[in-house]
Write a structure and sequence with these properties.
Helix content: 40-55%
Strand content: 5-15%
Strand order of the largest sheet: 1-2-3
Largest sheet: 3 strands, mixed
Order of helices and strands: EHEHHEH
Length: about 100
C-alpha cells in the first residue's frame, strides 16, 4: 500500500489523519467527496452495471484529492509507539470473562 485513501466522518479529524500517516509511514489522502461514500459506491456500481459509466477509468475521473497528510514521525518513535500499543493490547486479553 503506497497511500491510504480515506472517507467518512473521521476524515474531518485532522489529528487522526496525521496520526494515521505517522503510524503507517504512508501518505493519507482525503477526497473532496467525504460523506455518503457508501451510497456513492452503490451508485457507481449501478452505473457500471447499466452502462452509465464505461469502465473504472470513468469512475476514477470523479475522484479528487482534498488534502494529503504526509508522515512526520521518526522511525524510532514509530517503532516505540507500536511496541507499546502491542503491549497494551496484550494486557487487555482476558479482561472480561
Amino acid at each position: 500500500m503506497d497511500v491510504l485513501r480515506t472517507d467518512g466522518g473521521m476524515v474531518n479529524d485532522e489529528l487522526l489523519m496525521q496520526f494515521q500517516a505517522d503510524i503507517l509511514d504512508r501518505p493519507v489522502v482525503r477526497p473532496v467527496t467525504k460523506d455518503a461514500t457508501t451510497a456513492l459506491g452503490a451508485a457507481y456500481a449501478a452505473g457500471l452495471a447499466v452502462g452509465y459509466f464505461k469502465d473504472l477509468k470513468d469512475l476514477r475521473a470523479n475522484w479528487a484529492v482534498d488534502h494529503t497528510w504526509k508522515p512526520n514521525l521518526q522511525s524510532e518513535k514509530r517503532e516505540e509507539m507500536y511496541r507499546l500499543w502491542k503491549k497494551a493490547v496484550t494486557r487487555s486479553f482476558d479482561w472480561v470473562d
